[in-house]
């Protein structure tokens, strides 16, 4: 059965498209460097963001399942809007740290919640068997948003000569997300939208049922392995992916082309165009995730295989950057992005097979929480290594550590 292009399918795709119109993504590391921060300080900022995501993550996922997911999503985008304004108006490490706290709150209220809404919708429409393909297609719209975002970011940086304008511009799509979330049907709030008991006894019972089901996640070995596998890959990816920017910067300065432009303009063009084509590729791979998964006898096999391939790309990129073979380093990091987008729908599908639907938002928030812990450890580590030895050496060392963790996070057949 083909996936119906109904109103909710279009809304889910529009959500991802607008969410990824984050015009600062291709330049955020360069923005921090331009503000005078070291790689270690940048790593600390990422760690601050991840630690606060960790603090907010479980309660927000729990509240989304208990009190309503639409409210959680509206709060998410409101916090992000505050963060963007702080980044635009306030220079310096501590102001950036405050913005990271608001960004963390936004991420915590969102992560897992929208995926749970999609999965609930598929169950309602009796299409849950299509979850990998469906989520992959909605995710592909996110990557198209990122691709368009990269092109717009080039124009913004070239026109203003300043990286910070990209934060102000990002407030527009996120304001539109508030209206989109308000238009979602009430039944996607979860069970609380169906059972409108607002008495103290009713809320207490709902809270208790959600909590007891949530605790069962930790007694499920397959669920925990799925969460750990996704979290380790995701955490290392989030810690290392931005280092594509300084590698591209080095390549832009070395290229004997468009020499009539200033260095920052050449960097903006090369970085923006690279991210544009990168996101076009990741959009295509996300859209194909269901087809790829269907060709595997077990999704677990694909998850483990892509885990290894991702580590190999990270290691190759590090070694190539150290040897100043920048095109190979860039290609390997692009490969890491592609693997991440193939994996993500598989991970969500695998975890959803092992977690009860009532606490799906909470369970996916647990996955995000573990991911933030991994990122909080690896982001400062990569920053310290990059300051001390170089970006290439930092990526190579992290790639070795990541691959060494495989025996502890390899997943098994979901119903085994």
Count all strands and give the number. 0
Radius of gyration: 21 Å
CATH H-tier superfamily: MFS general substrate transporter like domains
Low-confidence stretches: 193-200
Second CATH tier, the architecture: Up-down Bundle
CATH topology: Growth Hormone, Chain: A
Helix content: over 70%
Write down the secondary-structure element order. Answer: HHHHHHHHHHHHHHHHHHHH
Total helical segments: 20
Strand content: under 5%
Question: What would you say this structure looks like, in words?
Answer:
The chain has 416 residues and is an all-alpha fold. The chain has a single domain, classed as Up-down Bundle (Growth Hormone, Chain: A). Helix content is 79%, strand content 0%. It is built from 20 helices and no strands. Helix 3 (39-67) runs antiparallel to helix 18 (360-388) and helix 4 (69-89) runs antiparallel to helix 5 (93-110). The radius of gyration is 21 Å and the shape is globular. The protein starts with 6 loop residues before the first helix and ends in a 7-residue tail after the last helix. The relative contact order is 0.17.
Keywords for this structure?
416 residues; mainly alpha; Growth Hormone, Chain: A; 20 helices; globular
What is the topology?
Elements: H1 7-19, H2 28-34, H3 39-67, H4 69-89, H5 93-110, H6 113-124, H7 131-160, H8 165-169, H9 171-182, H10 191-194, H11 200-217, H12 221-240, H13 244-254, H14 263-287, H15 289-294, H16 299-322, H17 326-352, H18 360-388, H19 391-404, H20 406-409
Helix pairs in contact: 1-7, 1-9, 3-4, 3-5, 3-18, 4-5, 4-9, 6-18, 7-14, 7-17, 12-17, 12-18, 13-14, 13-17, 14-17, 16-17, 16-19, 18-19
